Amino acid sequence: MTELLLIYAIIPLIKIGAIVLILSGAIAYLTLLERKLIAHIQVRLGPMRVGWHGLLQPIADGLKFILKEDIVPSKADSLIFTIAPMISLIPAFVVFAVVPFGPPEMFAGVLHTILSWFLEPSSVDTVIKSSIASGGFVTDINIAVLFVLSVSSVGILGVILGGWASNSKYPLLGALRSSAQMVSYEVALGFSIISVLLYAGSLSLVEIVQQQQTAGVWYIFYQPVAFFLFLVCGLAETNRLPFDLPEAETELVGGFHTEYSGFRFSLFFLAEYANMITVSAIGVTLFLGGWLPPFPNVAWLDFLGILPSVVWFLVKVFLILYLFIWIRGTLPRFRFDQLMSYGWKVLLPMALGHLIVYAAIKAMWETL
Amino acid sequence: MNFLKRIFLVDILKGMAVTFRYTYKSVYTEQYPKEKPKLAGRYKGAPRLNNDPETGETLCIACDLCAEICPENLIVVGSQRDPESRKKVLTHYTFDTSRCLFCGLCQEVCPTNAVELTQDFELATYSRKSMVWDRKRLEKGWDRIEFGKNYHK
């Protein structure tokens, strides 16, 4: 009984708490990273006043958001207006339930030492054997990729509802744009993921990483085009800069969050950055070998295994986030018709063609 | 060729290379109120009326040359003849910084180096009246609000 309680309640709750805390911190400091990096791209310094080189700036910003007056416009649909930011934020966190940060036996050693103090050796073993308890993830479900796709699509509902409930023209236009954008880029994103699934033969993210370990290389080396598609669609899904039409300041004031202020605005803001981290984490898991070091099966590269697996995962996520911000500092915004035609006329045929070619190669490889 | 360029995103990659190079360049902006910018050696700013460092008496002999040469006629020198020593003694001296064009002719023409344009460039005030500097302010300097030190703490 204690074992079951440990495996299915206590340890997962601790992990969830840790992930929520770490993720919130990561989101906060991602905003600082973005501001600093964009500033340095523009040969400025960025935030410098709060703390050493502005290191406490996210905390100051958060406090400011909390202390602001909570305004709901009188013509707005107050219930939906209140719920929308939460609908936007929560899925971004929920996705991390299936993202693997480390191998299935990651916490086995730690758990063994801690549990041996007050449990019998046999029950310690049963706890450790369960991957839910000792794995570097909250759960490992066999439809993880579908789960990620569906849950992250719920997040866009928050944007649409927020734009609708504001009862104002600019937010509505922003919401319309974002829904159109999501529909057109979700398809290509799905296809780029499918070509990974062809090779991995599984929908579980843990299994996909383990397949990359047996294959000996990350899937980006098999499918660079799919990775490119994933990155572009990921940028579009998270409303990042070349595709940030839903909140294009120059055209739509603030887009869907024009009427939002204070804490509710900060929820939308957090959701955007959480989505960025989510997309990077999923991209790392699918294409960059998750927690694996580069070329996991090459013998003379074994020294790379000295670093813990989580570090490899975090480094890769950081690099992709850096790339996202770097792209934001470089590229101008698309026009809306360019965005649509790029999505439907370039990305979708590319993704389809890529999938067909890779499926054919795979089929030929197996029959020959 | 053009097609290949578009396929492999050559232009975007070039742009990203540019931004990457700029990311690690040294910055142009200054932390202004915290750190004062470096001025050129011959920069001319706020005026000052120098005292003799040994005696503490003013160096100005009230010769009126600065007031004569000033293209804006913004210097007013008031003097009185001392009945005993038969010397001109400075009574008041005003310098209107609102009209000054910082040409530096006054400090060049001054025979005793009494009037001098310093490197202080923070001349903003809250009223037009206070832009006219009197003798006291010209000699002692200006007790302005120091934004740099405590403003951001």
Chain-wise SSE layout:
The complex is a heterodimer of chains A (368) and B (153).
Chain A: H1 2-41, H2 57-67, H3 78-94, H4 108-116, H5 121-129, H6 131-134, H7 144-165, H8 169-200, H9 205-215, H10 219-222, H11 224-237, H12 249-252, H13 262-287, H14 309-330, H15 336-367
Helix pairs in contact in A: 1-2, 1-5, 1-13, 1-14, 2-13, 3-7, 3-13, 4-5, 7-8, 7-13, 8-9, 8-11, 8-15, 11-13, 11-15, 13-14
Chain B: H1 2-7, H2 10-23, E1 47-49, H3 65-69, E2 75-81, E3 88-96, H4 105-109, E4 115-117, E5 132-133, H5 135-140, H6 147-150
Antiparallel strand pairs in B: 1-4, 2-3, 3-5
Describe the protein's architecture and organization.
The complex is a heterodimer of chains A (368) and B (153). The termini of chain A are far apart. Chain A is mainly alpha-helical. Chain A is globular and about 65 Å long. The mean pLDDT of chain A is 85. In chain A, 42% of the residues are buried. Chain A contains 15 helices and no strands. Chain B is an alpha+beta fold. Helix content of chain B is 26%, strand content 16%. Chain B contains 6 helices and 5 strands. Chain B has a 3-stranded antiparallel beta sheet with strand order 2-3-5. Chain B has a two-stranded antiparallel sheet with strand order 1-4. The model of chain B has no long low-confidence stretch (mean pLDDT 84). Chains A and B meet through helix 1 and helix 14 of A and helix 2 of B.
